Amino acid sequence: MITRFITEIQTAFNPFSARAKSARLFLSYLPPNARSSGMAISTQLLPRSSTAPSRLFVKFKDGKELDLDADNMGIKSIIEEVDRHSRILQKADDLAAA
């Protein structure tokens, strides 16, 4: 997963819910130095009795925002969506450097 262009991640999920698996796994895919490299990560843990859906919000350096439904999307779908925009930014960065 290309994380170089991500500036902010916000998640809200019930850690005891099976439907929150995608949100938990997405956070585990982030590199250990993500916060120190300038990425703002905020996580809100919902109570065990909460029925609110899992939420995943990703913001990129170019201002694009993705609000993903982590309840109904699998981890592969979430990573695919994030990488799709990251690859676009990577191409633009490569062209600008050349």
Automatic annotation (TrEMBL):
Main location: mitochondrion
Compartments it resides in: Mitochondrion
Keywords annotated in UniProt: Mitochondrion, Ribonucleoprotein, Ribosomal protein
Pfam families linked to this entry: MRP_L53
Gene Ontology CC: one annotated term: mitochondrial large ribosomal subunit
GO molecular function term, any single one: structural constituent of ribosome
Family per similarity comment: Belongs to the mitochondrion-specific ribosomal protein mL53 family.
Name this protein carries in UniProt: Large ribosomal subunit protein mL53
Gene source species: Apiosordaria backusii
Lineage: Eukaryota, Fungi, Dikarya, Ascomycota, Pezizomycotina
